[in-house]
Amino acid sequence: PDHLILAEEGEYPRTGSSFRWIIDPVDGTTNYAHGFPWFCVSIALESAGELLAGVIYSPMHDELFTAAKDGGAYLNGRRLHVSTRSPLRDTLLGTGFPYDCATDPANNFTSFIAFQKAARGIRRAGAAALDLAYVAAGRLDGFWELKLKPWDVAAGVLMIREAGGTVTTFDGSAYDISNHRIVASNGLIHGEMVSMLASAAQGGAA
Fold it and tell me: 158 φ, ψ to 5°?
């Protein structure tokens, strides 16, 4: 009961515990409100900044994604592995757009256009946590987005790492959940994705 909880509503209680639960009770709120069946519950546990466990549940598909540090990632009890697809032109990617994309130039539009031309396809479904779980499951080969919060990514980041994938910032450096720009992939296309993001940034807002 003395563990910290971090959610969209804030962080509480302030007890000084090293354990923190990072919770998004509904990721994909707009989808849920419109009856679009792409939303999930995302819960992660960290201690001293290290992700220890993660759970993502998709109620509309009755799919429970789980991961534990050094214990692998699973979907309904079946071990998960990222895909082996490459190069980038043969892959299916996921992404999203921030809520202020109509007013802020850092809106992901330039990167989206670049990846749309370079990859086989892109899916923008509207729930980042579930997108990350799909990368861990090998259903998506890569994912990128900006302006995400810790509760959007914490569980999914651990799942991808435990499934053998790679997670970094846009410039390829080490990622932690406080960073607002994430690139996740099966590892095989990661260099291509980072290079594409760099090129898009040079051509305009990300």
Answer: -60, -40
d(CA 161, CA 148): 18
Determine the distance from the C-alpha atom of residue 76 to the mean position of all C-alpha atoms in its chain, rounded to a whole number. 19
Which CATH code, of 1.10.3720.10, 3.30.540.10, 1.20.120.80, 3.30.499.10, is assigned to 4-79?
Answer: 3.30.540.10
CA distance 162 to 156: 10
Nearest to 205 by CA among 105, 130, 64, 113: 105
Residues 18 and 4: beta-carbon distance below 8 Å: no
Instruction: Tell me the H-state helices in the chain.
Output: 29-34, 109-118, 128-136, 150-162, 190-203
For 46-93, what is each residue's pLDDT tens digit?
999 999 999 999 999 999 999 999 999 999 999 999 999 999 999 999
**What is the rounded CA–CA span in Å between residue 93 and residue 184?**
10
Cα→Cα distances 52→47, 70, 161, 186, Å: 7, 9, 12, 21
